[in-house]
Amino acid sequence: MSADRTDSPTVLAIGMVSADHYLRVASLPERDEKVHGARLGWFAGGMAANFAVAARQFCSGTRLVTTFGDDAEAAAIRRRLEALGIDLRGSAEAAGCGSLTAVTTIDDRAEKSMVILDPGLPLPDVEACVSEAAGGDWDVVYPVALDAAWCGEIGAAARKAGALVAFDLEPYFVASAWDTPDFVRMMGSAGVVFMKMDSVRAAGLSGAAAAAEALQRLGAGVVVVTDGPGVTYCAAGDTRCTATPPAVTVADSTGAGDAFAGAFCALYAQRRPLPECLATATAIGSLATTEFGCQTYAPLRPAPFGRLLSEVTVRHVR
After folding, report:
1. pLDDT tens readout for residues 209-256
2. Could you give the CA distance from residue 199 to residue 206 in angstroms, rounded to a whole number?
């Protein structure tokens, strides 16, 4: 990380964006069951975009490099992200290709199912991303963990340039990439790694502490394991902390982990104390669940955010 800019870090997120469509039902359908629903709305989403928007609440500049479709939804996503202060320079457009779309069906208990409609948009060009990560003097670089070889190349370049490299390991990625040479290379560049408990189980590990130990042996500096409304576990060097989130009424949990990761990295790049990073990230992740859509907390509203922040409990553990 650039020591002279840690009070106002710059963040580079690389990955895909999506158009998220929501349907409300009384209960999720069983096999062969038909249920009536109502359209809730359309929102911008995608892991890279969600991370960038959350990080932007706590840093001076955030760039998102992605591949857009060339449809009306892509134009709407662009407008939304630019209105939130996200720099989209370096992003590409795939001619004749629609946007990545997620159709989420959600019931009265906030249980959900999701269908991804993938039009075949390519990941951002790896050579261009390596050049951007290496030459941009970034404090944080976040390549979305979709392809281990792609992540490994970008991560190595960013790490060599002095950036804090962050990865968020989803269960489907862990199931396919864990222990492969490309995954090992990724972890060698990782300053911060985020996992869900589902990802820990996908790796065949016994719990959060075991996951942290395994990833730190591969070179990861900080490992954060979240568990939805449960306790978050964080290992940073020899330090171990937990964060207990506030109680909230969950409307939609989509993107909460991305919000957590973006906030944590923006603060950690400022060398804020680990408990502050954990508490702030937990509060924004909780806030993200209280409305439909991934980025509805932005721009950040001080009153609800401050209330949730005051209710987070962070403890040091052995």
Report:
1. 999 999 999 999 999 999 999 999 999 999 999 999 999 999 999 999
2. 11
For residue 266, pLDDT over 50 is answered with: yes
- Listed by start position, the domains of the chain span 7-27+37-317
Q: What CA–CA distance (Å, rounded) separates 315 from 277? A: 13
Alpha helices in the chain (DSSP H): 47-56, 72-83, 126-135, 148-160, 171-177, 181-189, 197-202, 208-217, 256-268, 274-288, 302-310
Sign of CA dihedral 256, 257, 261, 267: positive
- Position 27 pLDDT exceeds 80: yes
| CB neighbours of residue 40 within 10 Å | 17
3-class secondary-structure state, position 120: coil
> Into which CATH architecture does domain 7-27+37-317 fall?
3-Layer(aba) Sandwich (3.40)
The span from the CA of 195 to the CA of 203, in Å, is 10
pTM flag (> 0.85): yes
Of 261, 235, 268, nearest to 170 by C-alpha is: 261
Q: Which residues pair with 314 in a beta bridge?
A: 243
Cα(245)–Cα(268) distance, integer angstroms:
19
The pLDDT score that the predictor gives to residue 32 is 92
- Distance between CA atoms of residues 55 and 264, nearest Å: 8
